[in-house]
Amino acid sequence: MVTTAVASWVVRRVSPGRVLAVTGRNVAALRSGPSYWLVLVSGFFEPLLYLLSIGVGVGALVGRIPLGDGQVVTYAVFVAPAMLAASAMNGALAETTFNFFFKLRYARTFEAILATPVRPFEVALGELSWAMVRSAFYTAVFLGVMVAFGLAGPWWALAAFPATLLVGLAFGAVGMAASTLMRGWQDFDVMTAAQFSLFLFSGTFAPVQDYPPVLEAVVVATPLYHAVELVRGLTLGQVEWALAGHAAYLLVMVAAGLWFAARRVERVLCK
Amino acid sequence: MQPLIYARGLVKRFGSFTAVDGIDLEVQPGEAFGFLGPNGAGKSSTMRMISCVSMPSAGELRILGRDPVREGPAIRARLGVCPQLDNLDPDLTVWENLTTYARYFGLSRAEARRKAGELLEFAQLTEKASSLVEPLSGGMKRRLTIARAMVNDPELVLLDEPTTGLDPQARHLLWERLFRLKQQGVTLVLTTHYMDEAEQLCDRLVVMDGGRIVAEGSPRRLIEDYSSPEVVELRFGLEELAGYVPRLEGVGDRVDPLPDRILLYAKDGDEAVAEVHRRGLTPSSVLVRRSTLEDVFLHLTGRTLVD
Q1: Fewest C-beta atoms under 10 Å: which of A46, B81, B139, B258?
Q2: What's this model's pTM, rounded to 2 decimal places?
């Protein structure tokens, strides 16, 4: 019922051509110079370096990790899907925070776009699509690395790829919503700190069950936990109903983030 | 004929501040229409409402016969907007600025390329096609912004202070390009505080002050209504001017003392000068000139500096 209402609203208000035009602007920016490529490539290495240093390096000291279903895996196998989820998050966030904020407040790119038939919601959708493309680029390469290192089977890696797209969309949308509230570059420090905390504590480097119950409850409420659990379940081939719950959490992030970001863009630029 | 812009009692408020305070407007197809006024007069707020990005707080507004609140995208599809500050895309080349913008209007890639080539020619930027925007001069950026506003073959082009900050050569080139658009039948609406620009480009204009329209007419008509055909500018060296004002009483239609000179508004400037000499006054310099919109403007909006 609600879904149908939302779907019909989207169909009535959104032109796929205009959304694609907004995404296409970023593709054109990619062609215009090497600086963007540099940012693009550098963002990819962070989770990969963590995988190598912590997953493989520290993993040698940690030993094996027992999973819920009795399966026991090496530490690197445990950490890799988490790094994969984190790279999906980083890729999307880099696009919808720093770049989005710059286009919203400084370059006045969106101001120019909104003088055309394109609507704020279409700007948000187009930008989010591009964030997903960037995030997908990271995760596709990362999955390739995982398969090459024997950290995931090729079919499970393929199954996990769409899930990483969802992770990118979810963080992209929420990051975009947050950027519309940013007052200046100093606010990004807060965001970076939050992002790093999520990266460290979302069941990434240690199973959340090992945390004290209170902390575990907090972690379970935060978004990267659900992304990690979803992606880990798929790369390790542990398909269960709980995955649908994690996916639902991420879907809500997508919808809420998009809706809020579009409203704020309109508030900021169409006053 | 249906007006392209129709406004009745149009109001724009930002919180407790009223930027546009109930204006009535009608702009006909093919007209070049100007908003003249000091900073803060409400020109840009009015332009933003006309370009359907800012919604009116009250009053009635029809653009191209449609309602901007409900049909914004359909109206914007037929408008060209050149904002006060260039918002060209710094990540894109000159060429891509045009092709990308064309895509927002739903032009196909092939159409976008054809249009971009044509507009670069129009803006005399063909050699700069593959340059990024940043290294361009102010005049080039402005021409590119205007070219970009033309990608959708708009029926109505809105230009917010199109030549502010440009050098005389760049301004004249831009005027010539805008005049060309006008000849092609494009309706132009522009804001400016350059009187020469308004006189050059506008068939009809309104003077705004404090969110209201204080005068309306053709440049010629406004000069006739609010000024005299000629103006005499008198200087008296370094002497205090206040003392001369009573002695000039009755010369011409109006005496306007400025800190450095006295203006006499008169039907016949030479006749006024003769009268000044008959009264035994010996100004150190005398200039007789035609009355301009600037005289109208300053008369209507006052000489106080507005920030």
Answers
A1: B258
A2: 0.88
